[in-house]
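ugh finaly. both done.
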Amino acid sequence: MKKIISIFLLSFLIFSIPVSAQKKGFYEGVQKKNVGLVLDNLNEYAAKADFKKYFALFADESTYIGTDATEVWDKKQFMDYAKPHFDKGQGWSFKSLKRNIYFSKDGTYAWFDEILDTQMKICRGSGVLEKIGGKWKIRQYVLSATVPNEVMSEVIKTKSPIEDALISELKNH
């Protein structure tokens, strides 16, 4: 009898959840997997230096922002930067350690942040994807080097001579 009551209560709870909420949860779960696959493929294709597959993941109108303050590239500029490295078989090896994915209400945009294990140690990848022609494409990717608070003052001393010149240049433009 307890089993029958338990099954009844469980069924009641499941069917009392609005169908729209059930569909949304399912849809979002599927889309999280799809976006995650794009990001996993991005890392895999970079590690294999597969230029064609790597850049096919980016929208035609996309931006890549690298760790250096001067690295803000449209897709063509990023391709020009990466091509010589990929041609030598020298991509980069990033492995996602932790990833968060979020969606716009209409489901056409996703944004993410992730902690990456890289040759530069821990970095943060973040960005925006758009569903274009039924496929998720990267619109913006930002790679940031993380700096532990305990060593920030040392890092600032090291980079100040380089970045002071850049700050001055940017203020004058």
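ok and the 2nd:
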Amino acid sequence: MLFNSYPFIFVFLPITLLVFFGLVRFRLTRVATASLFIASLAFYAYWDIHYLPLMLISIGFNYFIGRSIEETPLGSKKATRLLWTGIGLNLVLLCYYKYANFFLSSFDAIAGTDWTLPNIILPLGISFYTFTQTAYLVDAYRGKTTKQDWLSYGLFVTFFPHLIAGPILHHQDMIPQFQRMRNFVFSHKNVARGLVLFALGIAKKVLIADSVSPWVAPVFNNSGSVTFIEAWVGAISYTMQLYFDFSGYCDMAIGLGWMINIDLPINFDSPYKSKSIVEFWRRWHITLSNFLRDYLYIPLGGNRKGQVRRYVNLMTTMLLGGLWHGAGWTYIIWGGLHGLYLCLNHGWTKLGVSLPKLLAWVMTFFAVIVGWVLFRAATLSDAMNILQAMVGMKGIVLPGEAQGKLAILTNFGIQLKSWGSLAYIPEVNGNKGASIFVLVGLTLCTALLPNTQEIVEKFKPTWWWAVGVGVLTSVCLLSLNRVSEFLYFQF
């Protein structure tokens, strides 16, 4: 069930809210909590009920291991064995469903064998609920958890706004909210704020990300024949699509949480405003960055064992972060590239030399775009073809007439071709040039304008807000005939 679908908006969400607050009205708070848990399971089962038992088994296993660790003396050998048993089985489950075919095909390519496995379908959300529970086990081992009842724990893992594509939750942030009595009181303010943020999130997805989406595939599917300008259009289109798609999902998830008086963590903070890669990772997919820092980078030694070890830890963390996103070499190389970016960033910082802000932003944004090309490309060969075209290694072709005002550019080896001959530049109302202005406009919006969180902070229940949000929501609802999944569902 998609957030941007009629069944969710007009059936699932109203029934879930009515049942939850209806039970609260009769002071049945425990039953109300159970209703959210059941609703979350129904939300997950709507996708494919065959994978519901797998998730329930994972929850039951991790709850049992977590409780066992909590009842064991801190740092004891038994606690350590329990921790590694839990982490090991979580990773086995994740690796089988997400990486088995990738590892096997890579081995076949190296060894010249032909081993095969049955087609394995990746269960939705398995990366997110596996990471969430692994972090819980580590915190239990560190003595940072308290004994939880099974219902609170189950709801913490399955809470439907975050279940499929994050954000990655932390027990200390979530479980107390499910047990706090004032969170069971219906709040007109929270519902209104939640509806506004949900509307802004669905607008990002439906009106922007889905509109730009058709501009991406033609370039990446024809990487060997794209020209300079076409490669840039495809790369920036995907850069915008990914941002508005995933940040839109996270906005909708946070808005849904607010409607039930639950605060989910912010996952985006205008990442395309960043002036360094370090800053980018503090703004992009914040919950994943925090997870990788707290449960991988710091346990590896962080920056406590010298600069060389620090760079090794950064590379290791980002390579595994890339692998988490998908079973493919392009994801691993993307992670390694960002690891290299971070090493260079930290090395430059030690020199104490600062760049002009505009230059720092341009360099950071260009580095991010290069990374997204690797992230989106089906193969490394496709990625290299597009990157080569972007830097002019295949010649520079721009739209224009050889006899027109831009004819002087031909003296510098630049080719001019008519708009019609540039097959992979999309049209907007029959005008290919308009699509370039749209991409420039979107880039400026992400770099200069307030983000949705900042907009909602200024929310006041006035007629102007009601009319504006109402019109925006109506336009989105009328556009749901072209419903599409969120990009991060595949991870």
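summary for the 2nd one i guess: The longest helix spans residues 77-111.
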